[in-house]
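Researcher: We're teaching a course module on how sequence relates to structure. For the next exercise, students receive a sequence and then see the predicted structure as C-alpha cells, so they can try to spot secondary structure elements on their own. Here is the exercise chain.
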Amino acid sequence: MSPEIQSQLVRLCSDYELEYGERFDHFYCPFLCVDEDVELCLGHIVPDAFSASNKKTIVQRADIDNFYGSVFEADFELVVNNRGASLEQILTDPKLEQALRPKLMVNGTPVRYYPFRGKKASGHSRLQFEKSNGEVAEFVIAAPADNIVESENWSFVVEKSFEISAMASLLKAAFLTMFDLLGYSYALSAAGLFLGHDLLGKFFREHRHIRRATLYSASEQFFRPFQNLVRPVLGNAPFLGTTEDKTVTIFHTTFGNNFAIGVYVRTNSDLHIVLTPAFDNPDAIPVFLKFLESPPNEVLAKTARYVESSGHWDVAPTSLPMHWPRV
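Model: And here is the predicted structure for the students to work with:
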C-alpha cells in the first residue's frame, strides 16, 4: 500500500470516527457502504486522461474505479480528447476506429469493410485510402468494386452516442468531489447516499458481472432518468472546477429552501455542471425529484465557496436566475 493511500486512509478513518463514533477496519466505501479488505487505489476525481484537468486523487476501491473507468470514462475521454477528428484519423487509428465504429453506407445500405492484411474473400474489393502524409491505408469492402465506384451516394457515418458515458462519468466525478470536500458527513447523508450508494453504487452492484455487449443497453435504461442533472456550461464561466476552486452553485426555491448543489467538473477546456441533491430540509426532496423529472427553464441560484480552514461555506448574499436548458 502506497504512503499516499495510507495517509488518506488515516484522514478518512478519523473523519468517519468523528461522524459515527467508531473507526473502520479497512476502508468504508461510500459507494457500497461496506468496510471490506479489498484492493484500494488512488482514483482520480476527474478522469486522468483529460490532460488539462485537475489531477487530484482520492482513495477508492480498485474494482469500482476500474469498472467505471473501463465502461464509461474511457469512451468519454476518447470523444472529448478527439473532438474534431477527421475521417482519415478515425479510419487509420485502430483505437478510434474500434471505439467509433464508422459505418460505410452505400445508397443508404451499410456495407461491411475491414483492414486489408494480405488477403481478401472472394467477391470483396480492395480500397486504397491515401492519407495526408502520402501514406496509403488499404481496406477491403465486402462488395464488388463496381457497386461502390458506380454509386454516387456513399459515405461514412458514426452513429455511436457517448451521452450516457459522459453522464455516468460526470456524476461519479461530482460525487467524489463532494466526498473529497466534506468527507463522510456528505457521503453518508441522505443526499450523498442518493447519488453515491443508491445510484452509482447500485449500478456497480447490479452490473459488474454483466457482459459488455449488454452492459451499454442496461446503462442507457439505468442512467437516462438522471439526464437532467448534467449540463455543459457555455460561455466564459469564472470557474476552474469545484475540485480546484471549491466553488459550487446552490439552487433553491423562492422560499429559500436549498434543493441542489451544482458541482463544476472541468474536462480539458470544457466545463460541466452536475446537480447533486441537497436534502437538509425535507421540503427539498420533492422539489429535487420534480426537477429531476422536468426542470424549469430558469431556477434561482447563488454561488458558494467552501473554506477549508473553517469548514464552512462562504455563500453569496444575492441570488440570480440561472437558465437550465431543456433536453
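Model: If you want an answer key for the exercise: The chain has eleven helices and 17 strands. The first strand starts at residue 28 and ends at 29.
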